[in-house]
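HUMAN: Please help interpret these tokens:
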Amino acid sequence: MLLSKIERIRSILRIMYYKLIYRGRFSFPNWRNIYIGKNSQLSLKRGAFIKIENNFSIRNDVFFNLAENASVIIGDGVFINNGCKINCQKNIILGNNTLLGEYVLFYDHDHTILKEDRKNRFVTNSIEIESDVWIGSHSVITKGVTIGAGSVIGALNCIRKNVPRNCIVKSDSEMQSIKNA
């Protein structure tokens, strides 16, 4: 009991720290319903922002890396498990009640293929995760993807194309409607 209270106080201090250093670029309606675990980090470049609705929880070792003018919008009731990484050059949306397993990775960009431009040039496209989506551990979500509401992404998948509503993705090439699962 005492340890959980101490960890809650540490979470509140982390929240207040990020609120202070990022001012209006890290916004949420109520700090009482937000939990940020140990060793989790937010890195927001100039003009980038994170907007959190309510009832948001991230476990330990989660990392948000937002480039200049990038945005991450997080809906109500979102849970992000240990070790997830959200790398954003443009825009990522996590809908209400999204659940992320451990070590899920988001990349809304990749590098250009031209050798002389690889270091500083990115090809970007937004990622949208609709409401009530569960993404299994060690999955990778790539640029330009929309995952439809009510879908489940099995562990160890690399999602490179859109997933319709109410689908189960068992492997990168196998999608099945939940009605038929």
